[in-house]
Specification:
about 450 residues, alpha+beta, D-tyrosyl-trna(Tyr) Deacylase, Chain: A, five-stranded antiparallel sheet, five-stranded mixed sheet, 14 strands, about 20% strand
Length: about 450
């Protein structure tokens, strides 16, 4: 779809009223018509449905010139778009050219997940009695399942808790000797994407419906069989609880098998926020597979990617040349336009359905993957006002989100830089471009 609808809008050189609906927290700077600043910051609550803010928009020609002045040395491909929250384009450099998005892809993945699954959806890891002394642990696709119990709000489910409940139920039924089977069949297809670089296999976690500790072993390496690793860990805990486990192997139970115990994940809303804050690859892939399964599709890389394509098309966010091969953005062959990324951010700002996505965006100089960014003099204007998802692969990087200018205009932006001498060189360009927008003015 050609995103020509973004090119229409009011005259940006006049004072305009902009509104944002359904946000949890947005910094605002209100400038009244007399030119005096009366409010530097304010918070919108979920009950605020329409806030009218008189602001002065940047002059597109001046903004474009200032953005162009930022050095792009060492970056062969770059794309940037800056728009108002209602889609009026203020700056555009190659915004319809698909480039590798890296982890900015997670904006789209999490939006689709919260829309399809709902913010309150949870995922259960269960043990069931399959008869003949067999207990089956069934993976429900909890991306933050742990072995040891955690106090983190996004990690409420653990094998430690599951083992206590399972052992109690078994003993109550007079069973103290079992064989343990594990079922991770909710997801299908390869655990490691064929579109990922093979050199990542040692440390990049697989995607499975049953896995603990984000798919990592104690030495930081990735488990090659996450479901078996989790089942072995559960067996160890069951033995410590007084249950003899004679063997551990793959297996399935019937739907009629009575449940022994279960542990439940955090809500999709909480998972989404954590995924965006730290750019969690396993969580992003798991969410996208859960979204596909919820629509009756397979829980595989291929089906999940097709599902995201369909979701984007249904929300007028698909563009020619775009390609999606995963939900995390690890696949270098995936391609998105900055126009699509900016369109997704505008949708998230406008529709309260996506409040968890907005709440999860890192804040420059404060949280997540942006905590240590915007760290030199030319970038500092973006600190505390840029809310954006980062993305990084070798030689490329991206940034997509929103900010409030010095004049109080809430603007949406997306930037991608590729084929660079280093990702850090792209970071400087991304942060300096966003800081230019934050300083506007630009009249």
């Amino acid at each position: 779809m050609a995103l020509t609808r973004l090119l229409t809008g009011p005259d940006p050189n006049v004072r305009a009223t902009r509104w944002i609906a359904g946000l949890l927290t947005v910094p605002l700077a209100v400038v009244v018509l007399s030119g005096q600043t009366v409010v530097r910051s304010a918070a919108l609550t979920p009950t605020d449905t329409s806030i009218a803010v008189p602001v002065t928009l940047p002059d597109p020609a001046i903004l474009t010139a200032r953005l162009k002045a930022v050095s792009t040395r060492g970056i062969k491909q770059k794309s940037i778009i800056v728009t108002t929250t209602d889609g009026h384009v203020l700056a555009n450099r190659g915004a319809d050219t698909p480039l590798t998005p890296a982890s900015t892809m997670k904006v789209l993945t999490t939006m689709a997940a919260v829309d399809i699954l709902g913010p309150d959806r949870t995922f259960a890891t269960r043990t069931v009695d399959a008869g003949d002394g067999r207990v089956v642990v069934i993976g429900g696709g909890d991306p933050f399942l742990t072995d040891k119990a955690s106090t983190r709000s996004y990690k409420p489910a653990s094998l430690a808790t599951l083992a206590v409940g399972t052992a109690s139920a078994l003993k109550a039924a007079g069973h103290t000797t079992i064989s343990l089977r594990y079922d991770a069949s909710l997801f299908s297809g390869p655990l490691f994407s064929p579109k990922w670089k093979s050199k990542w296999r040692t440390y990049e976690a697989r995607v499975a419906a049953l896995e603990i500790n984000s798919g990592k072993l104690g030495n930081g390496k990735a488990s090659t069989n996450p479901a078996k690793t989790a089942a072995n860990a559960l067996a160890k805990r069951l033995r410590a609880a007084g249950i003899t486990v004679t063997s551990v192997a793959a297996g399935k139970a019937t739907s009629a098998s009575p449940e022994l115990s279960r542990v439940t994940s955090a809500t999709v809303s909480t998972i989404v926020q954590r995924t965006l804050l730290v750019s969690d690859n396993v969580a992003a892939e798991t969410l996208l597979r859960q979204s596909a399964v919820a629509r009756g599709m397979a829980g595989s890389f291929t089906a999940a990617s097709e599902n995201l394509h369909d979701w984007l098309a249904a929300h007028s966010l698909w563009a020619p040349g775009q390609k999606i091969y995963d939900g995390s953005g690890l696949a270098p062959a995936s391609k998105l336009t900055t126009a699509t990324l900016a369109g997704a951010i505008r949708l998230a700002l406008a529709d309260a359905t996506f409040a968890p996505v907005i709440a999860g965006l890192p804040i420059a100089g404060e949280t997540g993957t942006l905590k240590d960014r915007f760290d030199d003099k030319s970038e500092r204007a973006g600190r505390h006002t840029v809310h954006a998802k980062t993305g990084t692969l070798s030689g490329l990087a991206g940034l997509a989100g929103y900010l409030t200018t010095a004049d109080g205009a809430v603007l949406v932006f997306a930037e991608l830089g590729d084929k660079a001498t280093s990702s850090y060189r792209v970071y400087n360009w991304l942060d300096r471009e966003a800081a230019v927008v934050a300083r506007c003015g630009c009249r």
